[in-house]
Amino acid sequence: MTCKIRTELLQDGLLGLERHLLPAVSRLYGQDALIVTDADANVVYWSRSATRIFGYSAEEMVGNPLSRTIPVELQAKEEKMVNSLVPGALKRYETQRVCRDGRRIAVRASICALGGLADEPAGVLRSEREIPAGPDASVTASHLAAIVESSNDAIVSSDLDGIVTSWNKAAQRLFGYAPEEMIGRSILSIVPEDLHSEEREILRKIRAGKRIDHYETRRIGKDGTVVEVALTISPIRDRFGNVVGSSKIGRDISERKEMERRLIESEKIAATARMAANIAHEINNPLDSVMNLIYLARLNLTASSKARPCLLAAEGELERVSHLARQALGYYRDPGAAVEIHLGTLLEEVLSVYRSKLLAANIAVDCAFDQRRPIKASEDELMQVFSALVVNAIDAMPAGGVLTIETRELAEQGVEILVSDRGTGISTENLPKIFEPFFTTKGHLGTGIGLWVAHQLVEKRGGRIAIDSRTEPTCSGTTVSVFLPFQR
């Protein structure tokens, strides 16, 4: 009811205003479209200049909403601007309008509130002038538009509320959204929820006229993929110098960030390797001495001495420790020249090192070696690879079981080695991460280095390593397949 009264008062007032004041204003602003809207944004006055500029007659516009001349993506912004008007204050800005024939034109607008009941605005008086494009401006605008569309960087503009107003092809490639999906929508659609406060801070700085350079952050694509980007954000100003929005240039830095992470990871591994080598070196010297002492003690015992089997067992265990120390040295030390190797012989040697551990765990070993042609490789490196696989198989069968190792030649290509256990298996979600450095399924008992090193050494040799695993109670277990070519 109140809005109706205001509109009637406004229309009554316009009879006198149109008779006395508007003609004078029209002469003063002859090139400008003079428009008056009521409290519901319906047109109550439409000047001849408005018809000339926008193509709509007064009969077509009076009584109808002004929104038909406002682009859809700018309507919310326009409404907010009108609602913030204070009676007596004048607001100037530049924006766009839609003509009767569908053309978009740029206008320079001035608006002020018309007083109503209880000093509340009853309507709005507008003066809007078309900003001529001109031949040079048109060429420049087209040139700039072509640059934006052909850019490899995502270029996005938004208003001061974060509503997207433009979206180039690179933005579509990077985030997956087409322009029609994003224009008129909040930029928060591509901002992770935990970074919404960050976006609000960006908007605060833009409103203050500040520029943000090379800001690295995260965004979310249409398919949910997290994209790491570097942003440069600049305020957009109108001809009066007022900040009316922001322009963002975004570059995908996911690849660079991944390289940085890998570099840090490599540095960690190198440091770990150097530490392991130093520790192994320090252990090796006293270890050799202890083994020599046990050997001498064993020589001085009688054949029937009860201490002999104990010393033999101690010697075997120390040999295993010595082998582990040599492995640790191998992470950092040059493994030596390649030699011809029969994998059956090498695998027997690996199993001999872990024989006591296999017996203690109640694990039977089933071997089937079918290889006639040797391969050329570093013996130390292959010892590391298969030692890691055997240790993992033992750890996977705490209640005992069967460890199966097979080798077979694949025509003239190379040798395939299968190491299988009937253990607990590896879950589906962990399988993709199994060759990552420092990833382990053994809790505090694992280092996460063994399989990563094995993977590196096999691929360095030109081979392949893959894991298949099941966790179903009736058929759980893991099979590691290693392929080593005859020639690198």
Q: Which bin fits the share of residues in helices? A: 40-55%
Question: Major sheet: size, sense and barrel closure?
Answer: 5 strands, antiparallel
- Number of helix segments? 14
Secondary structural class = alpha+beta
Task: Please describe the structure with a list of short key phrases separated by commas or semicolons.
about 500 residues; alpha+beta; Beta-Lactamase; Helix Hairpins; 4 domains; five-stranded antiparallel beta sheet; 14 helices; 17 strands; about 25% strand; rod-shaped
Description:
With 488 residues, this protein is an alpha+beta fold. It folds into four domains: 2-132, Beta-Lactamase; 136-252, 2-Layer Sandwich (Beta-Lactamase); 254-333, Helix Hairpins; 334-488, Histidine kinase-like ATPase, C-terminal domain (Heat Shock Protein 90, 2-Layer Sandwich). The chain has helices at 2-28, 48-54, 58-61, 75-83, 134-150, 169-175, 179-182, 196-207, 254-299, 307-332, 343-353, 355-360, 379-395, 450-460, and strands at 33-38, 43-46, 90-98, 104-115, 121-130, 154-159, 164-167, 212-220, 226-237, 243-252, 339-341, 363-370, 375-377, 401-410, 414-421, 464-470, 477-485. Strand 14 (401-410) and strand 15 form a beta hairpin. The longest helix has 46 residues, at 254-299. Residues 1-21 and 24-29 have low confidence and may be disordered.
